[in-house]
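Protein in question quoted for reference:
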Amino acid sequence: MIGTETISRVIGKDVYDQSGQKIGSASEVYLDDETGQPEWVTVRTGLFGTKESFVPLRNADLTDDGLRVPVSKDAVKDAPKIDTDGHLSPQEEQELYRYYDLGTTSGTTGRTDTTVGHADRAGTTAGTTTGTESTTGMAAAGMTDRDRTDRAGTAGVDTRGAVGRDTSGPTTDNAMTRSEEQLNVGTRTEEVGRARLRKYVVTENATETVPVSREEVRVEREPITDANIGNALDGPAISEEEHEVTLRAERPVVEKEAVPVERVRLDTETVTDTETVNADLRKEQIEVDGDTERGTGRDRRV
């Protein structure tokens, strides 16, 4: 069961139908004005998530994977097109209940973005009879949410002399509350990309200069002296003879060895930029009708 304490976990979750098919992502939660309990969730659907449809939260389950609702994806796709303007009128809510075959509801529904404290709790109570719905609808058309009278709750009671509806309760006094929207800007973290390390092998040509040596034949001649006369006369006087010398030379030898040279890892750093956001904010203006300045016949706006 989805309660007020789990509203913040619902917003932004993936929404799945009763068979496990993904419908879209949860955008806003609407609360019942009488009970204060979550009643509806708007689900962003379509290729770019630009379409929002109302889905009932009755018998819905919140899991680690997302929000599972007891309706089909096709039913959500063909749901009545209702603007997500922050509050459901009694007629709009009754239309949704009839479409999803959920019976009727005893209250109107306001919206909350994250917590119960943000909910548009101001509204009128819709009765289950046709006459009550008609009365409530007129109040919604002629007044702002915070100014309309709880007609269904006061049905049959003489309210003559009542001037308005204070935000603190259904009783009226001689003052009217003026409200305006304020812009609350925050941030949320989402995945924008991924980076990975990949190692691959390339071949490069390396050139090194290595000194090498070799032996070459050199003929040396020496005259006959007293020192070598003995060796010169050793052997026959006239003969044929061969002498052989082995020549040696150095050749370059190449060996390759794999050695570690560095370690590489991925890390992240936070860079702070600024972005400008803008939104249209609504605020209520109060006009005083009648001769408010003696002799002028002019109206005043406060």
Notes: Strands lie at 14-16, 22-32, 38-45, 51-56, 61-62, 67-68, 87-88, 109-112, 287-288, 300-301. The first strand starts at residue 14 and ends at 16. DSSP finds five helices and ten strands in the chain. The radius of gyration is 46 Å.
